[in-house]
Amino acid sequence: MDELLIKYLHGETTAGETGRVEAWLLADEANRKQYEQVKTAWEISCRVLPPAIPDARQSLVRLKARIRLGEWSAPRPTIRRRLTAWRVAALIAVIACAGIGSWLAFSGHSNNTQSRPDGRGKPASHRGQPLPVMGQYKNQAGNVAYNDTLPDRSVVLLRPHASIVYDSGMQSGERTVGLRGDAFFSVAHNAGSPFVVHVDAIIVRVLGTSFDISHVDGGTAIAVKTGTVQVKKGTDSLVLNAGKSILVPYTGGIVRTVHAPVWQPDTLSTGGNEGRPIPKGRKYRDSINQVNFGRDRETMRSIIKDIMLERTWYDGREVTWFSLTDSVLVVNGRTAPQETFEGFKKRYGVRAGMGYFYGPVKVYGRGIIMSRDDVFGKPDDE
Amino acid sequence: MAFSEQAFDTLFTDWFGKLYTYAFSVLQDASAAEEAVQSVFGKIWEKRVQLDVHTTLKAYLYGSVYHECMNALRHEQRKRAHRRHALYSAQRVISDAHIKSEMGELEMRLKQAIEELPDRCRAIFQLSRFGELKYREIAEQLDLSVKTVEVQIAKALKHLRLKLADFLA
Q1: Which one, of A326, A372, A370, lies nearest residue A349 by Cα?
Q2: Is A233 helix (H, G, I), strand (E, B) or coil?
Q3: Residues 38 to 67 of B: which have CB under 8 A from any A CB?
């Protein structure tokens, strides 16, 4: 009867069904009570509302930043036309111009896809309708990291295939940047003009600092090297101080637990090498004594071997990166079960405030930090 | 349907709150709810020149958000097995503490009862509740029979009636 009562409540019953329900309601007081319960349950069911609804206009700005970064392409009208002779000629001319343009762009060693206020870079063609948010300037790293100085003198290191968009008005008002991919920022201090990075569904509001954003399995990792940043996702936000990092899951709010090591560039120029690949960083052994290096390398190799042998939770794939701290063991973005972690912590004598960090480039954290080259370097490194 | 960028902005700002509320009721997660709504509008932007809406705009938008929510829930289920237990626990503690402070007993029980519903049942029920769509509209958008929609909504409401019996007496 519940099903029929609900249909009745929603005005979805047929004439026959309506007659049946009304007769049933008149037949007994208990029936009327049951109907009232269904009706009340329906009425109160809308009382679980979100704690707060984000501002629609701000969400629209975030959406447009994502559109501009290419998450959704611009519409392409499908208009079929007959190819007349002059259209064929025009098409050939366009292809020839595009070819010359591409050659010029590549031979000019510029990664800019649109001209900059200072005149550097090549003018870009407008595909689709440009959006009036997040600025007109887009920089994109190719297969190598790309170091760029923004109009406000902030420096950004884009990792391979990352891109940013920003506007020409960065020297006044809010300095807003959209990011896709991983990047390290060193922000020029300007108390009157907050520096805001939109990445995924996250907003990072910078209060004068250097920080890193990278994508790891499970979420977006944000690490602060100097200063302070505010991280906001939806209605959730927190302030992150120097030396701290967080992982923001791709779905879900901000998690206030630090687990992920975050890549950090070895060098960051404040000018003079824009558009050029970042030179490889110093090796671990350059900064510490050789005796410790040999011992720590063996420890790192042993940890990696032990991880590979952990068949109960680890899938046996190559260890791309790991971090073993006094609170967690994470391998390629996967967290080891507590029991396994405790075993590693005890075996390798991990103390509070230190850890072992391994990755393809230098990583951020306190303790023994080694790259792949450090651990499995060339024979002459031995 | 084709529209300008200005019309797109208006469409977004007009519908964002309602669709977000629906998405949140299904996903119970602020970021995921905003992501679901943005995805719908991102796709609308992508095909705005040749967007075909065969039903009412309201039914189309709610139906699209429903599909995004279902995708998010499926994705979340796949990831859940790999997600750190500690992170989940921490999140849960924060979330529960927040809920307790903001909600009364009835709302708490209601929230629990709604969360206990199977994902699809909850999403269809909330589509009817927040979207105020007719069974036929829901069925068309979700490519289901009207009977299936009826059964799912009845199932949800029956569950709520039983779980909230103390408050409904």
Answers
A1: A326
A2: strand
A3: 38, 41-43, 45-50
Tokens of B18: 């309602």
DSSP calls for A196-232:
EEEETTEEEEESS-EEEEEEETTEEEEEEEESEEEEE
CA nearest to B124, candidates B89, B92, B156? B156
- What is each CA distance from A337 to A23, A282, B110, in whole angstroms? 61, 34, 34
CATH number at residue B145: 1.20.140
Q: For residue A137, give the 3-state DSSP assignment.
A: strand
pLDDT digits (tens), chain A, 382 positions:
777 888 788 788 888 888 888 888 888 888 888 888 888 877 777 776 777 888 888 888 888 777 776 666 554 433 333 444 444 444 444 444 444 433 333 333 333 333 333 333 333 332 333 322 344 455 565 655 666 777 777 777 777 777 777 766 665 567 788 888 788 787 777 777 778 888 877 888 776 677 778 776 667 778 777 777 888 877 777 777 777 777 777 766 665 544 444 444 433 333 333 333 333 333 333 333 344 567 777 888 889 888 887 767 777 677 777 888 888 888 877 778 888 888 998 888 888 767 787 765 444 456 677 777 777 764 444 4
Nearest-CA distance B17 → chain A (Å): 6
Task: Give me the total of CB pairs closer than 8 Å, taking one residue from chain A and one from chain B.
Answer: 179
Domains present along chain A, CATH in parentheses: 2-44 (no CATH), 86-263 (2.60.120.1440), 284-381 (no CATH)
> B125 with B152: CB under 8 angstroms?
yes
Contact between B142 and B121 under an 8 Å Cβ cutoff? The reply is no
Q: Which domain holds residue B64?
A: 5-168
User: B16 and chain A: CB distance < 8 Å anywhere?
Assistant: yes
**CB-CB: which of A49, A72, A249 is closest to B21?**
A49
Of the partner residues B9, B21, B49, the one whose CB lies closest to the CB of residue A53:
B21
Query: Which residues of chain A have a CB within 8 Å of the CB of B75?
Result: 251
What is the count of structural domains for chain B?
1
Residues 247-286 of A with CB under 8 A from B: 247, 249, 251-253, 255-257, 259
Is the distance from CB of A82 to CB of B57 less than 8 angstroms?
Answer: no
Q: Please tell me the distance in Å from A380's CA to the nearest CA on chain B.
A: 39
